[in-house]
Structures are given as C-alpha cells and as structure tokens.
From TrEMBL:
GO molecular function, one term: methyltransferase activity
Keywords, comma-separated and alphabetical: Methyltransferase, S-adenosyl-L-methionine, Transferase
Organism of derivation: Mycena maculata
Protein's recorded name: Post-SET domain-containing protein
Record-annotated Post-SET domain positions: 121-137
UniProt record, GO biological process: methylation
Domain of life of the organism encoding this protein: Eukaryota
Database matches in InterPro entries: Flavunoidine_N-MTase (IPR053201), Post-SET_dom (IPR003616), SET_dom (IPR001214), SET_dom_sf (IPR046341)
Length: 166
C-alpha cells in the first residue's frame, strides 16, 4: 500500500508528492518564498528517542521532536533552501524558514546535520549538488566549516562542535 493512501495534508501552501520507492516522497511549495520567510510554526510533540520522523531539538539524545505534518517529507540537501529553527527556548516559537528565495513548485530541502548530531539512519546523499558531502551521518562526523557554510546551524550543534564532542 503506498504511503499516500492514508495521507492527509496539514498545510495548504505545500504539496507532498509521493514516489514509487522507499524514501522517494518530497514536499514542494505552491508559492514563491522569499529568503527569511517563515513557512510555518511547528506544532510538534516532544519524543524521548530518535526515529526517522524526528528532528533533534537540543544537545541530549532524548531531545527530539516528532514531525507530525507535511514537513515530515522535507528531504536532505547539502545546499538546503530551508531551516528547521528550533533555537528558541520557547517551543511555541519553533518554525521553518526559507534560507534563500524559493520558486513555486520547488522541493523544500534542509541540511540534516544542521540539527542532527549523530543520526540513527546514516545514508548516501543523492542531492547532486556541487558541495555534496556523500555519506550523511550527522554533524559529529563533519568539520565546523562544512556545517556552517550550509546557511544555518542549530545552537546545540555549534555547542557540541565547540566542546569537541566529535
């Protein structure tokens, strides 16, 4: 049964497109987004463990949020166009924002290591960008320069890098 069978959209400004293989779904925008635009405020449930559908929201391994919306389908890119900004101490201010101008119809992508220290499911990147890093495992396995040049990094990732946790 395809994933789309039971799918219910959560946002009218975005379209989730389902591919035929595993991990082949993605989300696009219906309208132009300018750099800095807030795409949505995240309404999420905190989880105490990592899973494919979570994003790290703090330094501890238990600090993860469940993406329970269309934004679950945002794929990785080594040259991302959005950021999951979970840097506020107030979770009601967590949001997704554009890192650059994004044309209508464009897939939304984020740099997984910008929020993930050590990923549960490492993978070979297929983003096809000039700056593709190949194997994506989390920030722990990258240099600070490789992370910072992607446009946005979560504060806890920078703290862990500065503490020499890698």
């Amino acid at each position: 049964m395809p994933v789309s069978y039971s799918y219910t959209p959560s946002h009218t400004d975005f379209i989730v497109k389902f591919g035929s293989g595993n991990f082949s779904s993605f989300i696009t925008t219906r309208r132009f987004l300018a750099q800095g635009d807030v795409l949505t405020v995240l309404t999420t449930v905190t989880r105490s463990h990592k899973a494919y559908s979570t994003v790290q929201c703090g330094k501890g391994p238990q600090d993860n949020i469940e993406l329970n919306s269309d934004f679950l389908y945002v794929n990785h890119s080594c040259e991302p166009n959005i950021a999951f900004d979970l840097s506020s101490a107030d979770p009601t201010e967590w949001h997704v924002r554009a890192l650059k101008n994004i044309d209508a119809g464009s897939p939304l992508t984020f740099f997984y290591p910008s929020t993930e220290w050590q990923m549960e499911q490492a993978f070979e990147c297929q983003c096809g960008t000039k700056s593709c890093l190949g194997r994506i495992q989390g920030a722990k396995f990258l240099t600070g320069e490789a992370i910072v040049e992607r446009g946005w990094v979560s504060p806890w990732i920078m703290e862990l890098m500065n503490e020499g946790e890698g």
